[in-house]
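Could you show me some protein's one-letter sequence and the numbers that encode its backbone in two labelled lines?

___
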Amino acid sequence: MALATILLKKRGVREPHWHPNANEMTYCIEGKALISIFSPGNTHDTFTLSKGEVVYFPKGYIHHIENIHSGDSRFLLAYDQHLPEDLDLSESLASMPAHALAATFGTKEEGFQKIKKQAKDTFISQRKTTSKLASLSVSNHNKFDLESIKPQIETKGGSVRIANSLNFPQLEELALFSLRIAKNGIREPHWHPNATELNYVIAGKARLTIFSPGGEKDTFTLLPGQGSVIPTGYFHYIENASSTALHMAVYFNHPTPDDIGLSGALSAFSNEVLDSLFSTDPAFFAKLPKFQEDRMIVSGGG
């Protein structure tokens, strides 16, 4: 997987481009954007993307992101490849001979010969005027209003809003959890059997421990703008380490990531089996609550 952040200033434009080897899932965390996608079958979609909404760009589909907010707009981009490839329109157009371009559009070569060829792609440009479509607000099958839905998981410890292929059918190979953990809250120790996790702190401070095959243990904190990768099946937990709420974007490279939590897993085995593993009072596990399912997000212990 790979993760990127993009900040667009007023009238800033992430130029039209496509990714030959990667699907992209973009989460608007500030501002408002105009999105255009041109798809196989000559389908052209133009729509807005506001804070809290997600857009999905399938592999190879050309698309652009344009800031139509009065201030800055920020976006979090995840890919299902660790080295996503990128082809931008400006550089791609400049690579073709003028006569081929002229023949394509049925015009003379001179116009294309006068186009200034850049040494590299433009990547981010800026419009001279505000888009006339700034007030546009339409739905589209490529976007999903993540923050408007009722959390699929909600406890005293926090909540999770989930965008996966079950409620956002366009998704292939990616899913996104908007994870909020309250003060003293903990995302219980768990692992994902079928997905790598790539997370990013939007607000607050997180503390994580990751336990890897071979007995390696890593404990660290994450601040806003920082993230971490957790390989498939690695045991980990997330804790709110700040006095305010923690908000994280948690991406997975599977459209329906699986989850196994410690609460359910520990409860699946007999007290006798557990007693044989640990040097503790045999009565400890007998008194421990048995859960038939994961607890997901819990509040501080007693």
